[in-house]
Every structure is written in C-alpha cells, then in structure tokens.
Amino acid sequence: MATLRAPGGSGGPGDSGQTATPLGGPAGGLYLPPPGAGVSGARSLRRMTRAIRSNGKASVGLGLLVLFCLVALFPGVIAHDDPSAEIYGRALGPSAQHLLGTTAFGQDIFAQVIYGTRPVLLIALGVGVSATVIAMLIGVAAAYLGGTWDGVLSLITDVLLVIPAFPLLIVIASYLHGASTGVLIAVVTAVSWSYTARQLRAQALSLRNRDFLEAARVRGERSLYIIVVEIIPTMTSLLVASFLTNALYAVLFSSSLQFIGLGNPNTVSWGTMLYWAENEEAFQTGQALWIIVPGLCIVALGAAFALLNYAFDEIGNPALRPVRSMRGKRVKRTG
Amino acid sequence: MTDQAAVVAGGLGEADDSAILRTEGLTRHFRIGNAMSRATLHAVDDVSISIGERQIVALAGESGSGKSTVARLLAKLYRPTRGEIYFEGRPLSAIRSRRDVLRYRGEVPMVFQDPFASINPVFRVSHGVMRGLRLHRPDLSAHQRHEEAERVFEAVGLTPAAEVLQRFPHELSGGQRQRVGFAQALALRPRLILADEPVSMLDVSIRIGLLNLMAKLRDEQDVSILYITHDIASARYVADRLIIMYAARIAEQGPTEELLASPKHPYTQLLLSAVPDPRAPLGVGAETDRGEPPRVIDPTPGCRFRARCPLAVEECHTVTPELTELAPDHYAACHVAASGAEVRAFG
Amino acid sequence: MSSALGNGNLPRSPAERTAGTVLEVRDLSVEYAMEGGTIRAVDAVSFDLDPAEFLGVVGESGCGKSTLLFAIAQLLAPPAAITSGSVVFRGQSMVGLTDRQLAAVRWKDLSVVMQSAMNALNPVKTIEAQFRDAMRAHGVTSKHEIADRSAQVLAMVGIDAVHLKSYPHQLSGGMRQRSMIAMALLLTPELVIMDEPTSALDVVAQRSLMVQIKELQEQLGFAVIFVTHDMSLVSHFSDRLMVMYAGRIDEFGPTRELFDAPQHPYTIGLMEAFPSIRGPRVPLTGIPGSPPNLASPPPGCRFAPRCPKVMTRCQEETPELYHVNDTLVRCFLHAEDGAGHD
Description:
The complex is a heterotrimer of chains A (335), B (347) and C (342).
Chain A: H1 41-54, H2 56-73, H3 75-78, H4 109-115, H5 117-145, H6 147-162, H7 165-175, H8 181-208, H9 211-219, H10 223-231, H11 236-259, H12 270-279, H13 288-316
Helix pairs in contact in A: 2-5, 2-13, 5-6, 5-8, 5-11, 6-8, 7-8, 8-11, 9-10, 11-12, 11-13, 12-13
Chain B: H1 3-9, E1 21-32, E2 39-47, E3 50-51, E4 56-60, H2 67-74, E5 82-87, E6 90-91, H3 98-107, E7 110-111, H4 126-136, H5 142-155, H6 161-165, H7 174-186, E8 192-196, H8 204-220, E9 224-229, H9 232-238, E10 241-246, E11 249-255, H10 256-261, H11 266-274, H12 314-318, E12 324-327, E13 330-332, H13 335-338
Parallel strand pairs in B: 4-9, 4-10, 7-8, 8-9
Antiparallel strand pairs in B: 1-2, 1-3, 1-5, 5-6, 10-11, 11-13, 12-13
Chain C: E1 23-34, E2 37-49, E3 54-58, H1 65-72, E4 80-89, E5 92-93, H2 99-105, E6 110-113, H3 117-120, H4 127-137, H5 143-156, H6 173-184, E7 191-195, H7 203-220, E8 223-228, H8 231-234, E9 240-245, E10 248-254, H9 255-260, H10 265-272, E11 322-324, E12 327-329
Parallel strand pairs in C: 3-8, 3-9, 6-7, 7-8
Antiparallel strand pairs in C: 1-2, 1-4, 4-5, 9-10, 10-12, 11-12
C-alpha cells in the first residue's frame, strides 16, 4: 500500500496564505512583539488561570473537582465517624449526629459518602492516566509508523472498540471475584483505551504530513524521537481531553460494576453503597438518602469531568467559544 | 558584498565533474487506485540534472510538474523507482547505514515552503538548530553549540541572535521563520540546500529579502542551492541555471539569461507569456490557452505537451522527445525545436 | 483589451452624488473584539464605484483588504463588526440591514467569489444542484429556466455543459474557479466582489481566468472589486487601483497613472519588490521590516517605521489623502499645504 503524498502538492502561485477571514480574526502576517514578551512559564500559567476563570464551565467543573479531591484527601477532617462501624442505630433518619442518617446495618451514611470518595477518585484518575498513556502510545505509533504496524495496531484497537464495553467488563470482573480498587482500575482501563486511541491516531495522522515533522525527519531524527518529542507535545489538548473522558467513564463504569455486586462489597465506596442500599431495598423501606446521596455524588463528579472537558475544548479552540458580540458599539448611521 | 550585489554578480559557471549532486534518469512512480483499478501515477520521469559548486539552480514548473517530488527524492524521503542520484560521485542507493544516511542529511538539508507549519510550534526556535547540531556535529561542546547557533542566526540576518533564539515561532513573522529554516540548514555545514518553494507563502515585499539571502549564502557560505519554485521571475532573479519541468519531465534547461532570452520549448514560451509584468502588456493573443498540465497516469508515448501545443506534428504524438542540446549548454525536449525550425508558439 | 479607464473618481460630497454610482463607501471602519482589546482592521475607508468599473484592491497580509471586502458584502461575523461608516449600494444603505433584507440583495445584485473554490463549493453536491439552489433561493422556479441559465453561464466561462453533472472534486482547479464565477453571474448582478480568486491557480490558468473575467465584465456590464496581493496581475485589468496598508488606503487612482508614476513610498517599494523577467537583472531591496501590530499601531503614518523617506512630521500627525493629478496619496510628501518637504 503505497502512501501517496500528493506530488507537486505545494501551494499555488503567490499564496501568502494569510488573507484575513473575519471569522478567524484579522491575523495575517505576524508582528514582532517587543523583546521580553516571550511566553514564559509564569505568563502562560497566568493566561491559563484567566481563561479558566472567565469560562463558566471551567470554573464550575474545576470547583467541583477540587472539592472532591479535598474530601478524598482529608476524609477524617470532615467525617468523624468510622464508615464501616456498624454500631449506630439502624435505619435512622437524618439528625444532628448522623447528617444523612444510618444504613440498615447501623453505619453512618455521611461518613460512608465522605470516605467513599477516595476510591472513586483513585479509580477515575488511575484509569484516566493509564488509558490515556496506552491510547497515546498505540494511537500515535500506529499513525506515524503506518503500513503493517498501523494495520496490526488498528485491528487490535478496533476489535476492542466493537466489543460492548460494559458486558465485557462484567465478564472480566466476574472472573476476578470481588475486584479491589487496583483490579478495577486495570479492568476499566483495558476496556476504555481503544476509544481515545482512535481519536489520537486520527489527530496524529493529520499531523503526520506537517512540514515540521518532515523537517525533523530530514534532519535525521529517529522515528521514536519524532513520536515522543515532536508529535506528542503538540497533541496536549487532545491528551487532556482523553484523560478527562476516560476519568468520566471510569467513574460510571466502576460504580456500575460495584452496583451489580462485582466490586468488593466490603470496601466503602459510592458504588458499593448503592449495592447494599439496593440489596436492602432502601427506597421501599424509606431510607431514600442511602441511595440518592451516593448517586448524586457520582453524577456530580462525572459532571465535573464533563464540564472540564467542554471547557478545555473551548479554551483550546477559540472557534468553539461563545461569541462576544460588539455591544455598546452601535454603528453610527450616516446619511 | 551586499545581498543585492551578490544577486547580480551571479554564481560560478556550470556543473560538470565537480557536480555536487547529479541525477541520471531519475524516475518516481506511485501506485494509485484500489484493488479494483490499479494505475500508475508518473510523478517524475527520466530527470537528469546536475548541480555544481556555488550554484543556484532553479527547478521551475506548475503544480503537478514533479518538482517537489524531485526535491523529496534528493532529500532521500522517497526512493526512486528507477534511475540514480549521485552525491559527490557516490550513488545514493549505496548510502544505507544510519551513519551514512545521517551524514548525507547533514550535507543536503531541506528548507520547506510553509513558514507556519515547518517549525514545531511548541518549542522555541532554537530547538531545531540545536537538535541539528547535536545530531550532525557531535564534536561540539554545549557552549560551542550555542555559539554556532548564534553564528548561523546572524548569517541569515536574524539579529540579535541570542535574543531571537529564545523566541517562540508564533512570535516571529513569516519571513523570519523562513530565515530560521535556512539557519537550521546552515548549521549542518551543508554542500547543497534543497529549498522547496521557500518564498511562495511570503508577502511580496519580504520575498526579495529571502532571495537576496540565498544569493549571499551561495557566495559567502559556499553553499549551493536547488531553488524549487513556480515563479519564473524569482527564478530569474536568483538562479544561475534554470530547469523547466512539465508533466514529470524536463522540458528545457540552460543558463538562466540565455534560456529566458531565447526559449526553445513551446511550453517555456507559454509560461513566459503568461507571467504578468506591469511594465509590459500581458501577452493576450487571440488564443488564450485554457489547458492545464495533465496528471500523468499511465501515459502513452509522445510529448506530454502535445494537447496544448500549436506546433505539434505527427512525431509529437508517438515519440517522447529527449533532451537535445540546441545551444551551448541549453537543452530542450521538443521535436520541432530539435529539427532546427524556429519555434515561436506563444506571445 | 481593457475598456476605457475610469475618470479617477474621488469621493464626492453627498450633494454631488449622481444616481449612477453603484457603490459608495464612506469612512468605513471595522473592528475585531479580541481578548487584549479591539483591533481596527479597516480604518475609515472611503471610495465610490461606478457601474461596470473594475477596481483592484491591493495589499499584503494584514492590510485589511479582505476584511473590507467582507464588510461591503455584509458577511462579517463576531468578533468582527462594522463600527462606523456607511456602505450604500445602489442607493440603499447596507449596514444594519437584517438578514432577510440582505437576502433580497445578495446574489441578485451583489455576488461574491471566494478565494478557494473547494471551500466555497459544496463538495457533496453537483454543480447543477448548487446552481439550482442559488436560483431557487431567489425566486427562479421554472425548471426550464434554471436548466437554461445554468448551461448559459457555464458556456460563458468556457465550460462544457456536460460538467453540470460533475462534483467539484472532479473538476480541475481552474475549472472550479470558473464554475464559481459562473455561479456568481447566475442572476446577472451589478457588482461582483472577488477575493483573490486566482491565488490557487498556476500562472497560465491565472491569466486565462483574468482575461475571461474581463471579457465577461465588458459583455455583461457588471462592476468588479478584485482583491489581491498580486499587483502586477491586476494591473492589466483594473480601471482603478487601491493600495491598502495597515487598514488604510495609501494610494488610490487610475491604474496606468499609478503604475507609471507611483507616489506613495509603500507603493513604490511594493512595485520594486517584483522581479521582472524582462529587462536587465537588477538587485532589488524589498521593504525592510514588517507591517505594524494593529493592536497598537504606531502614531501618525503607519508606514513611517519602514519608510525610506520618513520625516519627523510623519510620526506625529496622520496624513490625509492628498491629490496628485487624479490619484489620492496618503503621504506628507504630497501634502497640499506645501509643508510636505523637510
């Protein structure tokens, strides 16, 4: 399969390539800013914080995420009861000592929710990172190396993609009875990486013929160097998006697995709370909070990741931003 | 010598055995189509050129003529389907080991067309130069590398070098980025720079600066340049020798002034008549050619310009013309011209 | 070859405006609302356009010529907007019209040809279908009429009617550009605005397209505003030429006069930056430096930082447009108050 690079495809005559499009901004030739105005780390960080603060979705999403992280890091500070201790009165309603009441076994619901945050967050971040790393290595390698490598790697990716994720998860998890957090991370990663691998491969393919990569090749760089040093840093926004997407799905998948009993029911986590609550028919017996609160937390964390995902899209691609109209600058109607 | 004066003075004469790079029957085909309908696209057919020391050779043609593919063949980004490339007398096909290939890449680097896509936007502009130095001149210490980077930046007119090196690509203008491209090539101490349409995407008022720079590099840095372009006027301005390509073959080649003064191939004449020059009336004859260069797929023998050529004869439809010397060092691939008849086709 | 040159129309006062002018632009300014502030891409541009006149607008990247074009066609979208001035087309003010009102004018009286046909033509529709869409949108419903007209405009641009059934990607670059021009002429507009329609073409195709446009213009009598960076190309076809720099008009006058005797240092520099294939080979200099940053333009004349003939006055005051014969020049060297020379 010969890769056809359009022969003589270089641009036509005199194309300065920079005529202004009103939608994209007045740009055109670049201007030399005064010396010292280069982009340093501090300056880009400031720009990033400004971008986040001015974007509604980013602020909310980040706020929620930070909140959950704090809870996960310092659960003891917030909840003073032992979440597993079955020493309290059973099925109590909300009160001053038990903010959300107690479970059918006498555990404090509030404590469970607080302590249950950490495993969920660990899974989310663990899957987010590992799925993205795997997707990146496979997707970008497939795109850059092309030929048979691409064929093989794409085949693996596609096969995994086609198999419905959740049923596969169930099958795998039921083999590993009572999956612990670590196992859950591995299992969910194995099922999720293929989706973002395809995206990353697509983007890498579009980058592949960019001149700066050819320039690196002509300079004599090795393929691995080009992939790691030249291609991947230019894909950061997609990698961040991949991380957030995978984290989101990890929260949902892992909680669902735990809900149907394939997690380790003895750990304290939102998903296991749902499992026990369902087992004890919490709704029917009037212990609604036992089911509702962990469910809401799952939704909230998922939403945080989703909002951040949208926000990064907008920050990274100005074309997606909500548009500022020129209010206050009305056209003066002249004769 | 100032940049401008360098242009007019011109480079040393011709290439012969002292040729840095020489091709013989260079051919590159691509298979296109799917399993159902296979066809062969002829991107480059039977191209024989040579570039000597301290020379700027312009390879001119419209899009699809094959000029960019020739550049990539010379840069060893593609392998020739047929024919051979000789670098300092040694065939490129014999250059196999990583070390040899690396050495070749240091001798024959490439400058790209798009100033906005040819530099990695994530790193400072020093990145490319430093990487190049690290790969090709490992004998230099870190300090020497910095000095060398500054030297080449100054040589291409990017001053103050130390300061510009710390900038990011988006902080430089198009013209400056192209100069960075030349600096990167220069840092490798090349014999020959392959410049693939280096000024096409720049504003008109900036182009001259780059063209003058190329002439200066030829004279002061002892570097030859293969200048690929579709713009005949800029080719004339800077090149010692001109090669005109059409539909994957060479139509005409020779010393620039001589070729432009008396073009032998009808296609060259067509091209020259179509170049707008405000000081001269545009050659609008009764017949305005509406043709386009063909995509050469599974071609039959015969001259590829015959469909648009008012002088085509019987032979043009059956026999592919070879390059014949019609004046000292001036070659054209045209049956009519070779027969000695005066060729005046357009304008 | 080209029709009689225009008489170098200068912007006239409202009282003198004749009924014949196709387009009047007065003090048109366009600004972009960017994060760091507003950027004025077009700064108080004024000119008139006569019927069947060919106006070339020339400049390099960032000069505002394309923005000007989009502003005239009312195609600007946020963050760009017209912030002052007027555009009067056939006696009707265009700025501030609703989309509905604009739709009545678009294509019937004013059409636009974009830079790249592949971007402007719908890749999944045949040429025929696209012509039909355009005509139906403007009330032409008879199938017969549509078919006739489609074949007619294609013939006008030298394309065989069989290509009506083709998709854009099946046509060559030159043919695509021609189809775009044919499409622009479907409803015989009075004004056709063209944004670098020849940029993506090769020299030979470029010339034949330009000749074609000029022939059509003389045949059908529509006015043309032709935006390009290639001054030498448009010079053979335009009646008047407008040179823009950093959002302002720097020189504006009859083509031949401007070419034979350019007045503004920028125009002179620009013309000298084109190497010639005829005549002696001389070293050229181009214009050193870069266009100014429009977010914070230099005070006074915007070309001053790069001008070989700069005077102290140039960096303090902004020059107006001064008359030199039939040409307007924005340069203190030609100031009418006589204080133009240091």
